[in-house]
Write a structure and sequence with these properties.
Layout (H helix, E strand, L loop, with lengths): L1 H25 L1 H4 L23 H5 L3 H6 L5 H10 L2 H6 L3 E6 L1 H5 L3 H9 L1 H10 L1 E2 L5 H4 L1 E5 L5 E7 L2 E4 L3 E9 L3 E6 L8
Parallel strand pairs: 1-7
Antiparallel strand pairs: 1-2, 3-4, 4-5, 5-6, 6-7
Helix pairs in contact: 5-9
C-alpha cells in the first residue's frame, strides 16, 4: 500500500507545482498592482526628475492639481480655472485627459483665444472635449475612437510612442499618471465637432 500512495502523492505534488504558477499567471489580482508603462514621447525628456512637476510628483496629485505643477500647461490650467472645472476634473476617477501645451494654445490667434476664454459655455465645451471618461492605454490608441465628456468623439492613431489625435494633434508626452487620470500632452488644441 505504501508503494502505491507515494507515487500518487508525488504525482499530485508535481501536478500542484505545475498548476500553481499557471494559476498565478492568469489571476488578475496578482498583477492588478503592476506599475503602468512609463510615460513616452519626445517632450517627456523636459519633465523635471524630482519634485511636484516630476512624473512621481504628478502621480501623487489629482489631474488639475498635477497639471498646475507643469509650466508647459499653465494656459490649460488657467482655462480650466476660468471654466470652473478644477473640482470636476480632480474628483473624476480613471479618466484620460488630452492636455494641450502652452504652444498649442499659442497656435490660436490671440483675438480668437480671448473670445473663447471670455465665453464660459464655449470654453467648457472645448475643455471637456479633451477628456475621456475612461483610462486609455497606448494599445487602445493605435486605432481608437472614444466618447468625450463633451459628448462628441475623438479618434487616435499610431503605435509605439507616436500617436495623433483627430489626425491633427501629436501626443508629445503620453501616459503621464496622476492620482485619478492618465494625461497625454498634445501639441494642438482639439476642436469639438459642430
Amino acid at each position: 500500500m505504501t508503494t502505491t500512495r507515494t507515487p500518487r502523492r508525488s504525482a499530485l505534488l508535481a501536478a500542484a507545482l505545475f498548476v500553481l504558477p499557471v494559476t498565478l499567471g492568469v489571476a488578475g489580482p496578482a498583477f492588478a498592482d503592476s506599475p503602468p508603462p512609463a510615460p513616452y514621447g519626445p517632450a517627456c525628456m523636459t519633465v523635471p526628475k524630482q519634485g511636484a512637476g516630476s512624473f512621481d510628483g504628478m502621480a501623487q496629485d489629482p489631474v488639475a492639481t498635477a497639471a498646475s505643477h507643469n509650466p508647459d500647461l499653465s494656459t490649460l490650467v488657467a482655462a480650466v480655472k476660468k471654466a470652473g472645472l478644477v473640482d470636476t476634473l480632480n474628483n473624476a476617477q480613471n479618466i484620460t485627459v488630452f492636455a494641450p501645451t502652452n504652444e498649442a494654445f499659442a497656435k490660436i490667434p490671440k483675438a480668437d483665444l480671448a473670445k473663447i476664454l471670455a465665453n464660459k459655455a464655449e470654453l467648457t465645451k472645448i475643455l471637456t472635449y479633451h477628456v475621456v471618461g475612461e483610462t486609455i492605454t497606448p494599445k487602445q490608441m493605435e486605432n481608437g475612437t472614444f466618447k468625450t465628456l463633451e459628448g462628441g468623439t475623438l479618434t487616435t492613431q499610431g503605435s509605439g510612442s507616436s500617436f495623433t489625435v483627430n489626425k491633427t494633434a501629436k501626443v508629445v508626452c503620453g501616459g503621464v499618471p496622476t492620482s485619478n487620470a492618465t494625461v497625454n500632452i498634445i501639441d494642438t488644441v482639439l476642436t469639438p465637432p459642430m
